[in-house]
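Long-time lurker, first post. I've been practising inverse folding by hand and with some scripts of my own, and I keep getting stuck on stretches where the structure tokens seem ambiguous. Below is the full token string for one chain I'm working on. Before anyone asks, I'm not after the true native sequence, just a reasonable design that respects the backbone. If someone could post their per-position residues I'd love to compare against what I wrote down in my notebook.
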């Protein structure tokens, strides 16, 4: 029976070691999951910031175009076209 007891003792030690490893791996998985969630939050915040900056960039680009000489000329041309259209409408209403 001595040999059987030795084998049982080895099995117990291996089971004990496997249980410890399992517990450690579960803890590591929990920490990794928490880290993933934190990083997802960071990504969401960075995406929001990126969207805001993209919108600001678009607005600044439009302002730059309007402020440029060519942009002002184009804006004036469009305004003049609108004024002419309004004048036509007023003329039609007066008839």
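-- Answer (accepted) --
I ran through it position by position. Result:
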């Amino acid at each position: 029976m001595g040999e059987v007891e030795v084998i049982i003792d080895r099995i117990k030690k291996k089971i004990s070691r496997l249980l410890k490893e399992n517990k450690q791996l579960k803890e590591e998985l929990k920490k990794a999951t928490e880290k993933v969630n934190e990083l997802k939050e960071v990504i969401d915040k960075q995406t929001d910031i990126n969207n805001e900056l993209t919108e600001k960039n678009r607005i600044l680009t439009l302002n730059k175009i309007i402020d440029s000489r060519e942009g002002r000329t184009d804006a004036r041309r469009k305004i003049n076209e609108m004024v002419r259209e309004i004048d036509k409408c007023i003329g039609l209403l007066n008839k």
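A couple of notes from the structure itself: The first helix runs from residue 2 to 67. Helices lie at 2-67, 69-94. Happy to go over any region you disagree with.
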